[in-house]
Amino acid sequence: MRKLQIKDKQQLISTIDKNRIFILFGVIFLFMALFAPRFMNVFNLTTIMRTMSLNATVAIGFTLILVIGQLDLSIGTIITFAAVVGLGLKESVGFGLSVPLAVAAGGVVGLINGILVAKAKINSFIVTLGMMTVLQGTIYTITGGNSISLSTPDAFAISDWLAEMFFPLLTPRVLITIILVILASFGMRRTRIGRNFYMVGGNSQTAWLAGIDTDRYTIAAFVISGLTAAVGGILFAMESAAATLNMGNSSLMYVISATIIGGTSMAGGKGGVFKTFVAVLTLEVLYNGIILFGLGNEVKIFLAGVILAAVILYEAYTSYRREKVLGQRPELMKELERDREAAAASSS
Amino acid sequence: MLNTTVLEMTKVSKAFPGTLAVDNVDFSVEVGEIHALCGENGAGKSTLMKIIAGSYNDYTGHVYISGKEVDLHTPSKSKSFGIEMIYQELSLAYPLSIAENVLAGRMPMKSRKKNGKGLFIDKDKMVRETRRCLKMVGLDHLDPMLPIEDISQHEGQLVEIAKALGNNPCVLVMDEPTSALSREDVKRLFTIMRNLKNRGISIIYISHHLPEIFEVADRITVLRDGKKIATREKADITSEELVQMMIGHSVNEFYSHADHSINEIRLSVDNLTRNGFFHKVSFQARKGEVLGLGGLSGAGRSELARVLCGLDSRDSGTVQIDGKEVKIRNMGQALRKGIAYLTENRKTEGLALRLNLGENILAGIIPQLTRTGIYNSRRGFGILSKLVKELSIYPPDPLRIVNNLSGGNQQKVLLAKWMASEPKVLILDEPTRGVDIGAKMIIHQSIERLAQEGHTILLISSDLPELVALSNRILIMRQGHIIREMQKSECTEESVLLAANGEGV
Amino acid sequence: MTEQKTQHEHIVQPEMQLDARAVKLNIFSKFLHTLGIYGIAGLFVIFGIVLQVFGVINGFLSVQNMLNIVDAVALLGIVAVGMAFVTYSGHYADLSAPTTMALTGIVCVQMLRYGFLPAILISLAVGISVGLLNAVAIGKFKANPIIWTLAVSYVTLGVIRLVWVNKQIYPDVMASSQRASDLFDAIYRLRFFGKIALPVIILIILIIIYTLLMTRTQFGAQLKITGAARKAAKFSGINVERIIGAAFLVSAVSAAIGGLVVTSLSRVGAWYNGAGYDFRAVTAIVIGGMTLAGGRGSIIGVVGGVLIIGLMNNIMTLLGIGTFSQDMIRGAIFIIVVGVSAKSLRSLGRDDA
Amino acid sequence: MKKLVKLLFVGLMLLTAAGLVFAGGEAEEAASGAVEGNLEASLAIDVSVLTAADGQPLIKLGGQTRPVPERPADPSALPETDPLHWWDMEFAGWNSVKTNIPESPKDGAIGKRIVMIVHGDHPWTTACSNGAQKVADAYDIDLKIMSPNWDLAVQNQMIDQAINERPDMILLIPLDAKTAPQQARKINRAGVPLILFNTLPSAEAMDYAIAWTGPDDFGQFRILSRLWADALGKEGGVAYVQHAPGGSPYFARCFGPISELSEYAPEITVLDKQAPGFEADKTMQLVSDWLTRFGDELKGICAADDSAQALGIFEALSKAGREDVIVVAAGNSKVGMDLVKDGKLYAITYQTAEGDGALAVKTAADWFNGLEIEPVRYLPQHMITVEDVEDFYPPQW
To answer: Could you tell me the CATH superfamily of domain B265-500?
Structure first.
C-alpha cells in the first residue's frame, strides 16, 4: 500500500512537471480573465491570437533547432529578410511569385546555416551569429535603408483578408499558424522523421549508428527554421502591408524565451512544438493583460525575466536533485524504511 | 553446421592521419560461429569492427558478404546487410524512451497495406516490438516508454544489446559488451549468444577478458599493430600462447605476489551510510595495505568510494584518518586530507581529453604548485618527468593531447595524476579496465610500489585475478552491505566470485 | 625490480596515434596555427600598408591612426577580456553583460550625490552582484548559461526601468559637487601624455591582471581544466562550482567597469547603455581563438580579436565602404576565420568532433 | 492524472466560450455625452499660456507652414541632390485625398477620451507624453498612453486594443513611415478619428488621418544647413553621420542638407556618409577614421543626433586636435545643449519633445471644437546656437 502511494506521488509530480506549461497558461489565463479589464471578449482574444501568430510560427522551427541541440540566432533577421524580399519583389512579379520566393529565401539562408554547421562543423552559435550580421547588412543594402510599403488596393485587400476574423479567435493568418503548429507537432510526435530529429538531438552518435543521416537532419532543421521564420515574416509583412528593416529583431529573444519556458531543453532531444506554442500564447496573454492593466513595458520585461529565470532554475534544480539520487537502490530504501519503523516501534 | 563464409574481408586497410590503424588484414567469419578478436589496445580491433559496421567511408580493400562484394560506407548500408554492432561505450539517446532507442531507425509505421510505407508511427506495435526485444535480455519488466535517463547503467547496457538483437542480424559484432555487466548478466548474455549461434547467426566478440573468450569463442583472431597475426581454433591455443601473440613476446607471470607488511591503522570507517546506496559500512585499512573491494557491479563499491572522497554526501557514519575524524564535503577537501580517487570512467570523469598530458597529471596538485598566489606549472616538471618515466607513458611528451593517446597510456596518465598528489589513501576504481596487458603490468607494479612506500590502497576491481593477486585482504560487498572479509590466504578467484554472488562460506 | 623495469620498456611499443606533425594542413590553417590571431592582425596591417602604398587609402600607417584604433576598441576590449573567462570556462557567453553595464552606470550616476569614490564603489558592487546571481545559478545548479544570463538580463533591465521609470539621469545634475561630476566625466576623457586615454590604460591593466590570473594562478589553472572537462575537473578535486562562479564574477567585474566607461562617455545613465556588447564581445573572443568548448585560448588572443575588429572597421571606413556592406563583410570574415581555425584544430587532433 | 489536466483544459475552454458569449457583443459605448455649453467652455480654454519644462511656450501655432512647391511628375527620376527628389517624403500629406474621415462632433474637447500610442520607451517619449498630458489636463481630456517598446507586432496589437476601447480619438506615432498606411487605414475603417504625429508617415497614410503634426525635419535641416554653410564659408568637404536606417530622419537629416546645399553652396563637397548607430564609441571610431582619411579636407560634420553621436564626434575631434571642424546636429537633448553652450556644437535644431505631444493633443482638441484643421501642422522651426541656448534650459529630457 505504502509503496503504491509513493509511486503515485512521484507520478503526480512528473505529470505536473511534464505539463507545467499548460498549468502556467491556465493560471495566467484565469488571472487575466478574472481581473484584467476588457480581457474576455472576442475582439481582445482575437487580438492576442493575431499578435501571437508571428512568434508562434517562428517558434516552430526554433523548437526543432533546440530539439536537435543547436541554436539559431539568425531567425530575427530571417523574418526581416523574407519580409523585405517578399514585399520588395511584389511590384515586379506579384505576390504569386514573390511570396514563394521570400519563403525560399528563408530556406536558403537556413540551408547555408545548416551546411556550415553540419558539414563545416562550425558551432551553430557562431555560424548563426555571423549570419545575423551578414543578413542585417544584406537587408540594409538591398533596401538602401528604406522600409518597403505596399499601398496598392490589392495589397490592402490581402492585408485585410489576412487580418479579418472569420470565426471567433481566427483570422486566416492565425489559421495558417495553427495549421502549421498542428502539422509540425503531429509530425514531430508521430512520424519517423519527426522522431529521428529527437534521436539526433538526444545522441547524434546513436542516431548516426542507427543509420540516420545526422548531417541531413541537422541541415533539414536549419532549413525548416529558416522556412518557418520566413513564413512568419512574410505573413506578418503582408498583414502590415509593409516591411520595415528591423521588424523581426524583437522576435529572437522572445522565441528563445518562449521555447525554453515551453519545456524544450537546450541540451537537445526534449520538448515539443505544441508546448512551445502554448508558451507563446502564455506570454502573449500575460503581455496583453499587462497592457490592459495600463502597466508599462518595464513590468512586462521584468515579469518575462522572472518567469524565464524561474523555469530555468526549476529545471536546473530538478536535474541537480536527480543527479543526487541517480542510481539509488530501491531495496535499500525499503530496508531503510523498515529500520525506521522498527526504531519507531521500539521507542514507542 | 554448414561451413560457408558469411563475411570475408581481404586486404583491408584503414589509415588515420599519420598512422595505419588497420594494415592489410584478411578476416573471415563463418555462419554460426563465435569469433573472438583479440589484441592489445590500439591493435586495430575496434577500427576493424567499425569498418564492418560502416563507420568509415574511406577504407581500402574488399569486403564480401555471402560471397558478394559490397561497400560498407555508411552504418545504414551495413545494417541493410544484417550487420549489427554493440558498442563498448553506451550509444543511447538519454532523453528518449527505451522503445525509441531499441527501434532507432526502424520505427514501425501505420499502414493500410502490409509492409507498405505509412506516414505515422504505430505506437502499439512499437511497444510490442520493444517488449519482445527486451525479453531477450531479461528486461521485460521495464516500461518501454520510460526514458533511458531513468534506468540504471547496466540496464542501459542490456538495452543496447536488445537493440542489436532486435534487428535480426546475421552478423553481430560485440565490442566489450561485458565490461559494465554483472556476473549474472554475463551468464545470461553468453546463453543468448549460444542460442544465436545455434540459429546460424555469426558473432564477432571482442574482449580483454581471456576466460570469457575461452568460454564462448569458437575461433580466435589476434591482431597486433594493425596487422593480423593469426586465426586459430580455440582448441588449438592456450591462454599463454594467446597472450604471447597479443603482446609479441612471452611473459612469465601476470602478477607478482608481494607480501605487504602490516602497520598502524590509517583509515577507519564506521557505520558509513548513504541512504539507498550503501548502509552501515565499517572497515579499517592499514598503512601499506592493499585492501580489495570485491563484489558485482552495482554492489555499492564505487558509491562508497565517492562518499569517502566527498563527491557525494553521506547520511550517517564517521571516517577517521590516522585516528582523527575527518568531515569531507568535496573532493578538494579529500585531497587535502590525503584521500584520492581514481574513477572508473576514464574518458568522462577522469581526464580532460582536450588538454595535454602535463596539464592532466598536474590537475590534482595545482594548490601545491601555487606559492604566494602564483601558480607555476614548471614546479611540477620534476614530478611530471619522474612519473612519465616511472609509468613508461608513451610518448613521453608532456605537451601531447591526451585524446591522442592510446587507452592504456590514458589510464597511466590518470594513475599518474593521483600518484602526483601523494595521497595517504588511494582509491582505485577499476584501474585496468579496457587496458592492454603491457599497461596493465606497469599499473600493477606501480600499485605494489605505492603500497610498499606506505600508501594505503583501496582496490575496486571486477578483474578477479587482479583483485586476488594484488590485495592483502578483500572485503566483499553485496547489495549495499559488506557481507564478508576475506584474508589473503582464503582468497582465490573462485572463492571471491562465490562470495560476491552471496554464496559460499 | 630493475629486471621488471627493463621488461616494461620492451612492452612499450610504438603505439597507434595521430601524429600531429604528419597531418596535412592547408596553408591558411597552418599559418593560423603557428602565428595565431596576430597573424591575421598582421595580414590586415599588411593589407592596409599595401593599400596605402598604392595610394588607395592614406593615413593608415600613422601613430595617430593606430592610437585611434586602440581607443575605439578599448571599451569593447574591457568587456571582452572579462567575458573571455566565461567562454574559457566552457559556458559560451555572458548575455547579461549589457544590462550589467547599464545598471552599473546608472547606479553610479545616481550615487554621485555622495561623492565620486563612494559612487564608483557602490556601483561596482551592484554590478558585481549581478555576476553573483549568474555564479550561483550556473556554477551551483548548472543552469544553461545562455538562457540563464538572458533571463538575468531581462530581470536587470526590468529593475532599471522600474526604478528609474524609463528616465535617463545626468552626472552633472546628480553630482553633489562639480568636482565629482568632472571626475566622472574624466573616466573616459582623461589622457596620459596627451595621447593615451584612461580606458586604454584600464584595458592594459586588465589584460595584465587577467593574463596573470589565467596563466599564473591556481584559479587560472583550475579554470582551464574545468573549462575543458567539467566532470574531470570535479574528480580532480577542483571546486568547479566556485571556479565557474568566479569566472562569471570576473565577467561581471569587467562589465561593471565597462559600464562606468560607457556611461562616462555618453554622459547619461540610461537603461540602453551598453546594448549590443554581449554579441560584440563574443565575436571578439571567438575571433581571438577561444573556442566555445572551453579551456582553449588566451587573454592575449582575445585582445588580438578585439584589435582585428578595430582594424577591420578602420580599413573599411578608410576605403569608403558603406555601413551596410561593412556588416556583411564583418559577418563573413567572422564565420571564415572561426571556421578555418576550428578546422585546423580538428585536423591537429586538438579538438574532438 | 492526464485526465485531470485534460479536465482543466476543457474547463478553460468552457470559460473562454462563456466569456466570449458574455462579452461577445460590442465593446463599450463611445463615452462623450454632449453637455450643454461644453463647446463654448472648450473654446474658451487658452493653452498657449502653457509652458514646457524648458520655459518655452508649449504650443506656438501659426507661421510654421512653408511654401509647398509643385510636385514634379516623377520625383524619383531626379537626382538625390535635387531638393525635389525628396518631395514625396518632405511634403507627404499636403496633397492627400482624405478618405472616410469622420465628421467632427463639434461639441467641445472637454471630457473626451483619447488613446495615444507612441513608438517606444525613451526619455524623449517621456517628455513627449508629459507635454501631451499638460494639454490634456487643460482640456480635461482623459488621455491614455500606450508604448509598444519599438515592436511592430505589439504596436499593431495596441492599435487593435485602442480600437476596442472605442475612444473619441487615437493619436499615433507610427513605428515606421511605411507601416503607417495600413495602421491608419485600420483605425479609419473602424471609424475612430485619427491624428498621426511625430514620425513622418508615407503619404498614403495621410489619406486616412485627420492630420499629421510634428517636426518639419526636412525644413529644419534646410535651415540648419544654410547656417552651417555660412559658417563654413560655403566651401570645403563635409561628412554626414546618419540616423539609423528605416525612417524619414535617415533621409531628412542627410539628404535634406545635401540637396539644399547643392543649390545654396555648391562648392561644398560631400566626403562620406555613414550610419554608425547611436553609440558614442562607434561614432568616435568612424570620425577618427574620417580624420585620418580626409585630413584637413574635412571641414564640417552634420549629425543626426546631438547626444551620443555628437559626443563621439567631439571625442574624435579633440583627440586629433581639430577645433576647426564645424559640427551641427539635430535635437535639443541636454547633452547637445551643453555642447552648444561650451561652444563646441555650432548649432542644433530645436526639437521640442513636449511640444510634439502637446501639438497632437491640441490639434485633436481643435478638431473636437469644430475648428478647421490643415492637413499638416509643423512644430516651430528654430536653430539653437550659443547666443540663445540659455533660453532653452532646463532641458526637456
So the answer is: P-loop containing nucleotide triphosphate hydrolases (3.40.50.300)
Supply the ipTM of this predicted assembly: 0.90
Domain B1-82+169-252 sits in CATH 3.40.50.300: yes
In whole angstroms, give the CA distance from residue B32 to residue B202.
4
Comparing CB atoms, the residue among D2, D121, D182 nearest residue A15 is D2
Q: What is the CA radius of gyration of chain B?
A: 24
Cβ proximity of C23 and C338 under 8 Å: no
Q: Which fold has domain D47-65+74-215+354-380?
A: Rossmann fold (3.40.50)
Q: Do D280 and C262 touch (CB under 8 A)?
A: yes
Instruction: Tell me the shortest Cα–Cα distance from D221 to chain C, in angstroms.
Output: 22
Phi, psi (deg, nearest 5) at residue B316: -160, 170
Residue D297 at interface with chain C, using a CB cutoff of 8 Å: no
* pLDDT tens digit at each of 505 positions of chain B: 445 788 899 999 988 765 678 889 999 999 889 999 988 766 788 889 889 988 888 889 999 988 888 888 888 888 888 888 887 666 788 888 889 888 887 788 876 665 556 678 888 888 898 998 888 888 888 888 888 877 776 788 888 888 888 888 889 998 888 766 767 778 888 988 898 889 888 999 988 777 788 889 999 999 888 889 889 998 888 887 887 787 765 444 445 555 555 678 899 999 999 988 899 999 999 888 899 998 876 788 989 999 999 988 889 999 999 999 999 988 999 999 999 999 988 888 899 988 889 999 999 899 888 888 888 888 888 899 999 999 988 888 888 888 878 778 899 999 999 999 999 999 999 898 777 778 888 899 899 889 888 899 999 987 777 888 888 899 999 888 999 998 888 888 778 877 877 765 5
Residue A132 near chain C (CB below 8 Å): yes
Judge contact between C317 and A115, C-beta under 8 A. Answer: no
Distance CA B483, CA B480 (A): 9
Question: What is the per-residue burial (b if ≥16 Cβ within 10 Å, else e) of D187-196?
Answer: bbeeebbbbb
How many whole angstroms separate alpha carbon A304 and alpha carbon B175? 50
Domains D47-65+74-215+354-380 and D218-350 share a fold: yes
Measured distance CA(D149)–CA(D171) in Å, rounded: 16
Start-to-end C-alpha separation, chain A:
23
d(CA C213, CA C224): 11
Query: Across the interface, do A240 and D250 touch by the CB < 8 Å criterion?
Result: no
Question: Please, what is the end-to-end C-alpha distance for chain C in angstroms?
Answer: 42
**Per-domain residue ranges of chain D:** 47-65+74-215+354-380, 218-350
Determine which of A65, A84, A122 to mutate to test the interface with C (most C C-beta atoms within 10 Å).
A122
Chain B: partners with 3+ C-beta pairs within 8 Å: A, C
* CATH code, residues C61-344: 1.10.3470
Per residue, what are the HEC states of D78-125?
A: CCCCCHHHHHHHHCCCCCCCCCCCCCCCCCCCCCCEEEEECCCCCHHH
Q: Which CATH superfamily is domain D218-350 in?
A: Response regulator (3.40.50.2300)
Grid look-up 563498448 returns B88
C-alpha closest to that of C322 among A155, A140, D365, D24: A140
Three-state secondary structure call for residue C277: helix
With a CB cutoff of 8 Å and minimum separation 6, the contacts of D90 are D83, D218, D219, D252, D256
Delimit the domains of chain B by residue range. Answer: 1-82+169-252, 90-168, 265-500
Question: Shortest CA distance to D12 belongs to which of A12, A28, A292, A272?
Answer: A28
All structural domains of chain A: 24-325 (1.10.3470)
pTM of this prediction?
Answer: 0.91
Measured distance CA(B224)–CA(B216) in Å, rounded: 22
Say how far apart CA B254 and CA B264 lie, in whole Å.
30
